[in-house]
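Q: What does the assembled structure look like for these inputs?
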Amino acid sequence: MNRSTIDIWVGIFVAAGIAAVIFLALRVSSPSSFTSDDGISVIARFDNIGGLKLNAPVKSSGVVVGRVADIRFDPKRYQAEVTILLFKGIDFSKDSSADILTAGLLGEQYVGLETGGDEAMLKNGDTISITSSALVLEQLISKFMLDKAAETKASQ
Amino acid sequence: MNFFAWLGRITLRSLARLGFAARFMGFLLTQSGTSFRRFHLTIREMYFTGVMSLVIIGVSALFVGMVLGLQMYEVLKRFGSGDGVGTVVALSLLRELGPVLAALLFASRAGSAITAEIGLMKATEQLRAMEMMAVEPVARVVAPRFWAGVFSMPLLAALFNVVGIFGGYLIAVPLIGIDNGIFWGQMQANVDFHYDLVNGGIKSLVFGIAVSLIAVFEGYDAQPTAEGVSAATTRTVVTSSVVILMLDFVLTALMFQGN
Amino acid sequence: MTSSAPLLELDHVCFSYGKLALLQDISLHVKRGQIAALMGGSGSGKTTLLRLIGGQLKPQSGDIRFRGKSTLGQSHADQYAMRKQMGMLFQFGALFTDLNVFDNIAFPLREHFQLPEHMVKDLVLMKLHAVGLRGAARMMPHELSGGMARRVALARAIALDPLLMLYDEPFTGLDPISLSIIANLIKELNDALGTGSILVTHNIPESLKIVDYVYFMSAGKLVAEGTPADISNSSDAFVHQFVHAEPDGPVPFHIAANDYSSDLGLGAKQ
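A:
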């Protein structure tokens, strides 16, 4: 086999391989990596985060506006402390509220953010004070059962 | 009683071989200068390991992708999320099937050929002839084949992924009728560059090193007879396959733990 | 270096592989312009001896000197420098099967020197001409007959103009014509290049015609030596058996075994 023919074929092979990597990078995947330089990080405390995971999306009006950067347990307050990274260029008011919501009935959990009426905006390191915890299915069911039981008792 | 003696002997022999393989790897690395100084030696081997594997990689990937498309759609439809078929196909390929299947195919296509070639060169005294011409066979014959394998494997895995995703696309969009935009959009929204793509790439690189090393080692260590070479070729495929699957478990556990 | 000083000297060399003693107390020497034959039955350790000379194996005791310098304990680089001055013809040629005849012979030249391609071509064609195969330059090794392959391998072995030629059973598997061609080439090349040669063989009649000195080996030991004339007229029982190809003699027809009749179960039951 001629050396230049081999070179051409290997060249085609390498070019195709690199093109494949570029295709995978641009068309198939999206970059996840954005650090605190890319936005501000705020803290929200929840009584129960349910199944919230690291890197879960933070959405407002259904649009992704940030990600969950850190989840830890606050041993003093006995609450979950969730660090949220908000994308640059989107400002939320200081009295915004954060809820842990579920996508669909059994879908992944995410943080829902709703802005308030305050003039002041959230700054890096601020804490969101209005939060509501995740709905836990077991609690929901037992609450429903208890209500039902109470209803039946009352009607008797 | 006999069984334990046998077990002990097997263990000792395997350990000795592992030690020899490690020493061989060290020697191979010290003799790798030639593979880069005279890069056309490595390019030539990339033709035989990489280019010649393209057809089997492409055809297999296309069918794997199509099967994934059909199966995954079948399952996802039950949960009312048939639109996510692109995501599932891409994730299975990028994280697992791409690197693993490409490496398994590479081991049986290129790895066995490398072992047979080096083993036959040993059996026909070509390696000794080279030594007597003051040319180190590990530098001239073994190292270029090793590096060609290491370079080819990630490229082959990337091509496997792309062709596989295209196979999934063929099933999802023209056949099942999922919207083209939704197929790609869902995929892109849920596949992470670092977490899925880079980790998959690291896997294929590790597999490439493992398979190439096993292939050249078995060839170099083969008994210089017809039976010896055929046994070594078989060992390359068997050992590579087991090592790929074991390494895959270890790497998956390291990379995708937690969240 | 004077011409009388030996090119290669083996001094009481012993080599064993594990517990198996392959060579015991071998001493021999070759001068420039001389062809020494190393004869002996199969498995008498001749090929091992060649590997010791090439430095591919190390003896347990004794010394090997090439051009007056010991080859033992030399560095990897020194060993490779020494091998450039040695040429070896392997039993079945050991041609590189993925290269054609021309590239096979050009291989050592291209590996060791950065020569312009036209010089490589001239050198290769000269070597090919010396073995009479200039016309086969573009053929692949599998297209060659056994005799032609051996001649190509010979051309490759002399590509670096070695001082010492090692021949490992060069006559094996050749027809009578090819055999005498190879034998003549060995003699001619030795005279023309002024090399020393060691010829490992068990082809007595052909090699006695061309060699200057003969060493006889049996079971890893030197048992006889002398000029071809001495050997032909030797009264030594072993040499006599070997030279005249007698089936039985000091080298027995039967491998050591138990008593025949008892193996067959015919012995008196004790």
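The longest helix of chain A spans residues 3-28.
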